[in-house]
Amino acid sequence: MSASVAISVPWRCSSSSPIPYCFSSSSIIIFSFSSLQPKQVYCFKEKKSTSTKSAKKLRELKDVIVEKDYPHIMWWKEKMQTCVKTSSVQLVTRLVGDFYEAIGFDACILVEYAGLNPCGGLRSDSIPKAGCPVVCIVEEVQGPSQARSRKSRFISGHAHPGSPYVFGLVEDDCDLEFPEPMPVVGVSRSAKGYCMVSVLETMKTFSSEDGLTEEALVTKLRTSSWREFGEGGLLWAECNGRHFEWLEGDMLDEILFRVKELYGLDDNVTFRNVTVASENRPRPLHLGTASQIGAIQTEGIPFLLKYLLPSNCTGLPAMYVRDLLLNPPAYAIASTIQDICKLMSNVSCTIPEFTCITPSKLVKLLELRETNHVEFCKIKSVLDEILQLYSNSELNEILRLLMDPTWVATGLKIDMETLVKECESVSHRIAEIISLDGESNQKMSSHVNIPNEFFEEMESSWKGRVKRIHLIEAYEEVDKAAEALSLAATEDFLPVVLRVRAATASFGGPRGEITYAREHKAVWFKGRRFTPAVWAGTPGEEQIKQLRPSVDARGRKVGEEWFTTPKVEDALTRYHEACANAKTMVLDLLRDLSAELQAKVNVLVFASMLLVIAKALFAHVSEGRRRKWVFPTLINSFDSQEKGQTNGYHEMQITGLSPYWFDAAEGSGVRNTIDMKSMFLLTGPNGGGKSSLLRSICAAALFGICGFMVPAESATIPQFDSIMLHMKSYDSPADGKSSFQIEMSELRSIIVGATSKSLVLVDEICRGTETAKGTCIAASIVETLDSIGCLGIVSTHLHDIFKLPLTTRNTVFKAMGSEYVDGQTKPTWKLIDGICRESLAFETAKREGVPEAIIQRAEELYISMRTTDEKDLSSEKGSHKTDNHPTVINLPSNLSFVESTDEMQKFLKEVETAVSMICQRGLIEVCKLRSTSEGVIRCVLIAPRQQPPPSAIGASSVYVILRPDNRLYVGETDDLEGRVRAHRSKQGMQNASFLYFLVSGKSVACQLETLLINQLPKHGFQLTNIADGKHRNFGTCDASIENVTLHR
């Protein structure tokens, strides 16, 4: 019997370690956030004296909190502030300052999310047990209590990071953001691969996936490692950072038993199986593929969702699209999604707002009967939007097609007629109970001599929630009590107020007013020095005699300025009781409605998820149309193969493909055409676009098999059974593996999982090891992929691979194109046939700011190495005369030296002739000369070991350097002598020759310099400098000059 693993996975949880530590029920944890710096965290035991030894430990504990823990504490404080409920406010404000009190397991979540464990220190191994953190929350019993009496508490609920605490939400006037549910995951190994069982306690569902690769399983665990299980160690590394325990027996039964035990569920609680059959469904993306393509947000990689969806589409719709990319659907669902998107792109009518509610939120609030009127209004919006889709002729077909993708996402199979019928019924029922339109008879009470804010705070917590018709008697009792309170205040307080106002209001004189005491929820008289020195029977004296000091709920005097009367207190008590009764009845109605709708929870979950999918697809279509993307033609390779068809299902054609992170609507990005019927062996220079091409093809294929639009002009994409992209590898010191070991591990997984229906993309294969053996490994991998018959690309800089006797049948050699522009080789980023042996390594290094001296020395070493190789090759050719296929090494044109004096003189003459012809015509146009004789160019040669004449001093000149490598450099200067000296001071330029001519003024010199830079390459000369040709346009568009040819 194989061992299985139960893992607690923080699904989409921002905390890196969501499992709280366990404490004894007598522990009290106190956090203080009263200052900008974090206070110390202490752990006390109730009813135990502190000995000298324990006091010493307590003093040592004060140093536990260090600066690195401060962000965790601030994170928790922000979470507390954003999730405040009425009950939470009561819990916090009853203490002194900003202290938070937590008792027993109530302390667990505070301690864990703060990153601290006073009982176990900061050690990660101080966790007493594995599994999901279930926190027992204890609330105080609210209401009046006797003075000095012990506080009464009760267990109000349980919570964990994937299922937040919702007690008291039903009485709040706000929404609550829910995280995605956190599953308990079981992992085992079978003959098909890895099996993963995921159980959601909140949703009471489970799903099972079999046949997963190690990399796909790690991707699921990381977006939701067993060395004994995973050959590559990925799974062990992933699970080793979580809390797990080994299980024996049937994994599904054991997992469900542990979940029930962990959450305190009854044995008769059932979990619904939401597993969707994976037959003919593409395999989930590997972690490397998902990271390098941007499906998982990775630093430096364009994030897919940023380009698939507009910036305002976040939350549940974005998460649905991401999950679809990570787990591509079967062909039928992908084709349906594409049909939906096509219909959406042609919709001309208005569309709903698509209210999105987390399914786990619906289930938990209805189950615990804590759904407030805000949530009921959102639920009704969901149902009404479903009905809007159904009733609109343009949107009705979209609703029908959305049923299948929603079934796959929820595991619920509901037909459209049933959905519409249930939506109508539930929407009507909510409208009967919930106050939706702000009824006029739901206004707050308002009476004279009572502050309006008092009525606002007393009645806002229950008025406007449900329709008044259901609570007529309770509402009338509140109105009568409010009127009686106003009358009592008018009779007992108003005469005193009028007496005070009639008196002289000098400094220190009598003061008094009717005021709302917010902390005590009472309306009292507040005044000073209003008692008369002599009782003379004047107005107000009788009321002053009736005033008594105000006391709080425990009978303690509130202050010296607060007064009340028995009549006012009786009226206040009556009003509070009436409000409490009305609030209780309102909450009972809301809870009864929650219980009633719990029977419809499947329909509500289905409807909510349908709108999430609709919103995601509408957003994608809007962004795709803006970017001018297209819908590809999908080919069902599975059915084609089963029916014996061999044409079409094993090829991918994409016309006008552009990188998905470029905006084609703005004209950015180079488009390529891909006609792939087999493997490509791709070469190209550095920066030539190989990696971008692989990432673009991978993204387009993934978009296509998910039913989305693709960044191309047209596309035909088969339904791949897997898409695997390997871009680069980093070392893993924790696992003791080098980058080459990681690369080999990933390539092993790719080769093992590849079939004839797979798309395999490998970038710069075997670059992390010695060249010769790396080349042979790369060649063997190419042969293996060729024999498998999959589509894909393997790119490489290992050009010696073409010298090996490859036994490939279908592999095609492709290259990234380049062109010669302005004296330099530049990449075109275009895919062409053939082999590219130029790496442009020196140019790339120079462009990235590598010092010129290093690059020059590298060029010298390169020349030396190639010369040595050439001599060795000649020697080898002489000793092996029977070789019928000798390898010819051609030096690049920029390294073909002029080897004789005659050839040098001829070359100088050609340069002088070309310069004279180009500049003479240009000088005529620049200076507007009337005849060619006025613009004669007289070139002067400065040979090696020569200097320019004195006549050149202070004059503007244009010069051309004849470099030893047969390339030219064009420049202009007013200090020719200094410029010649500067150029010859550089290494390898000591014997350089110069050709120069004088002109009248620096402006003319600059324009002629630009003219030569732009025109000499067109006459067959290679230049080393093109900078001045980039930002000036002189001479680039003149047909007469461009037509000047030189016969060499």
Automatic annotation (TrEMBL):
Gene Ontology annotations of biological process type: mismatch repair
GO MF annotation, one: mismatched DNA binding
Keyword annotations: ATP-binding, DNA damage, DNA-binding, Nucleotide-binding
The organism's place on the tree of life at top rank: Eukaryota
Domain DNA mismatch repair proteins mutS family: start-end pairs: 758-774
Source lineage: Eukaryota, Viridiplantae, Streptophyta, Embryophyta, Tracheophyta
Protein name, UniProt field: DNA mismatch repair proteins mutS family domain-containing protein
Protein species of origin: Ambrosia artemisiifolia (Common ragweed)
Record-linked InterPro entries: DNA_mismatch_repair_MutS_C, DNA_mismatch_repair_MutS_N, GIY-YIG_endonuc, GIY-YIG_endonuc_sf, MtDNA_mismatch_repair_MutS, P-loop_NTPase
